[in-house]
């Protein structure tokens, strides 16, 4: 598909006249999807899609549109020429865009990491055999993902990844559930078995009577998957230059120096160590990593092409939401978590997270899968569902006691329009206080 894409754009670029510039992006996948219910295959299918977006630019004017590619050059060239003709008709009636910003200094790149994934039948057999006695519900998605950029100035950029993603939960007869997630570019059956063994232990705990807590403040350990729910919400506006300059960022006080986090907290958007491309849809080359929080203090904001034009800042992101968020590890070993927690909450998952006070980075939501009450370093009972309301300034600030040494890599299971390349690489955190309200 790479050569097909490049040939297509070269043909279109040769048909331009005057000062017209053409900028093109491609996003595609060849993915297998399998839906499991009661640990059996209930639905299986394959998705092959490659979407082309063209942007025609002259001066401060631009017009853009998209079409699907078939993989046949003649048919795709006809569709792309038709789209280009429509954009020509639109272009000169478009108003000037003061923040239009495309790269005009060509810099080509290629990053293809196509690790061989196991055959689909082998994966299905492995999952089915390992969970035959469990009530497993989930989705397995795997295959090749590609992203491309090319323009009429001669720049060409390509990214290819082979990734699998298994997102599932196991349920008890009482409708309790333990959720798990296994994703990556190299499949290891032993790793999957470790996840399943851990789920079996959790399911046994969920059979115990649930403990109903009174609202209050409790010591708490937040597993990486629970922390991910909070940081995903934070990422929507926290690190955006545009949101900071318009005073709408939930981290505005941190950026202005009026609040700070624990010196143990450092975060970065580490695209170079994850899956996302190091080029933007406007053709700008992006740094492999952008420091976001450094030793508890705000470091850099994420700046996309339009914000770069508006605020005279260098482009360092495709969008102003981190797609490869990574938090630095600490010193707490996983084997010591329960001992360090002593008595309090062991929170595996949160959901329905939203801001209760965005100016103070305070969030509310609910506990979810496999959350426990711990006494004297021993898990005693599953928790009845509770609502929390607390600020990240506290949880990652004065109330933060420890960060785990081990981290969990979590690839996004989002596949609404297409499979996502976004991911998080996070530790767990131990907090001296976590506020439960209901």
Automatic annotation (TrEMBL):
Source domain of life: Bacteria
A Pfam family of this chain: PmbA_TldD_3rd
Regions that span the bilayer: none
SUPFAM superfamilies for the chain: Putative modulator of DNA gyrase, PmbA/TldD (SSF111283)
Gene Ontology MF, one: metallopeptidase activity
Residue ranges annotated for the Metalloprotease TldD/E C-terminal domain, each copy included: 215-436
Entry keyword Hydrolase: yes
Record's keyword annotation contains Protease: yes
Sorted UniProt keywords: Hydrolase, Protease
GO annotation terms (biological process): proteolysis
Coiled coil: none
Protein name (record): Zn-dependent protease
